[in-house]
Amino acid sequence: VQLQASGGGLVQAGGSVRLSCAASGRTFSSYRMGWFRQAPGKEREVVAVIGRRGAITYYADSVKGRFTISRDDAKDTMYLEMNSLKPEDTAVYSCAASSDRSRWPPDKYDYWGQGTQVTVSS
User: What is the average per-residue pLDDT within 53-68?
Assistant: First the structure.
């Protein structure tokens, strides 16, 4: 699976951004999909994960109630709607695909896309 994240940019605190992750190469619908982020000087962290067919979702506590993950299997695309953005949401956001069905959320990802920068100004 090839993954390409897009949609990042510069936004003011309190604003919204919608990220997209376009997939190609294999059956997108068979993968659990996740969004991750990495801020300067910090480790990469999981932001949100969505199961196959969107049946289940997981959110990091820091984004619950503000971010929404979704997928459109007909378009081989995953989304992350980010609302009420805070400066601490500033990071490079990446998407990843997992075939791991042994646990939820999965902790092993098979494919990673290049990230997209989101910068939230105060």
Answer: 97
